[in-house]
Amino acid sequence: MKYLLVEDNLELADAVASRIRLDGHTVDHAAKIAEASAFVDTGDYDLILLDIMLPDGDGRSFLKQHRARKNLTPVIVLTARSQVSDRISLLDLGADDYLTKPFDHAELQARCRAVLRRNAGSAQSAQTIGDVEFDAVSGLLNVNGNCINLRNRELRLLELLIGSKGQVFSKQKLVDRLFSYDDDVSENAIEVYIGRLRKHIEGSNVQIVTLRGLGYRLDYDG
């Protein structure tokens, strides 16, 4: 998954981004509303973590504009305001959830997982497609009774493909979703991860199809 973290406290931002990356996700960091808007205008994100008090304005204006554009990317607000009226106004503006500062990083991770599951229309982290079972939290892939512990990049790539069954992803699109703007990677890296996943699901009725000139799609018989 690819996150956008909008937070001007650099120490907190570094701590949050580090935990996100440990889970195998990709994260871009913006310290101002203008930077966050530029990221959203040029990239796709699965989840936005949004601070309210920012150097160039109120994060609520960003949230309001985000929803006015019909952008459905879920948003978790990180706020120091604990009054019920503040939390209600954030939810009414379109926030999917909120956390009051200071917060526990484990709780933030759990809330992120819950919002992402909700957005995908699933109540559980485990998913089954064909005869392949996949758990995005544990990173375990079960193929015909054979349990495989996926590496982080493999895990997030499979999570993306399974969550968008039937959708075609170009190599560049996959680079954009799996890596941050600061990562120096080529499209060849995608070929490597696709190759690894194909080996893992070999023998199942699930396959990653190459569409020449277009990209990759996850298909299954059933």
Sum up the structure in keywords:
222 residues, alpha/beta, Rossmann fold, Arc Repressor Mutant, subunit A, 2 domains, 5-stranded parallel sheet, 4-stranded antiparallel sheet, 8 helices, 41% helix
Secondary-structure map:
Blueprint: E1 2-6, H1 10-22, E2 26-30, H2 33-42, E3 47-51, E4 53-54, E5 57-58, H3 59-68, E6 75-79, H4 84-93, E7 97-100, H5 105-119, E8 126-129, E9 132-135, E10 140-143, E11 146-149, H6 152-163, H7 171-178, H8 188-200, E12 206-211, E13 215-220
Parallel strand pairs: 1-2, 1-3, 3-6, 6-7
Antiparallel strand pairs: 4-5, 8-9, 9-10, 10-11, 12-13
Helix pairs in contact: 6-8
Would you kindly provide a written description of the structure presented here, covering whatever features stand out?
- The protein is an alpha/beta fold and 222 residues long.
- The chain folds into two domains: 2-119, Response regulator (Rossmann fold), CATH 3.40.50; 126-220, Arc Repressor Mutant, subunit A (Orthogonal Bundle).
- It has helices spanning 10-22, 33-42, 59-68, 84-93, 105-119, 152-163, 171-178, 188-200, and strands at residues 2-6, 26-30, 47-51, 53-54, 57-58, 75-79, 97-100, 126-129, 132-135, 140-143, 146-149, 206-211, 215-220.
- The strands form four sheets. It has a five-stranded parallel beta sheet with strand order 2-1-3-6-7, with helices on both faces. A four-stranded antiparallel beta sheet has the order 8-9-10-11, with helices on one face.
- A hairpin with a 3-residue loop joins strand 12 and strand 13 (215-220).
- Helix 6 crosses helix 8 (188-200).
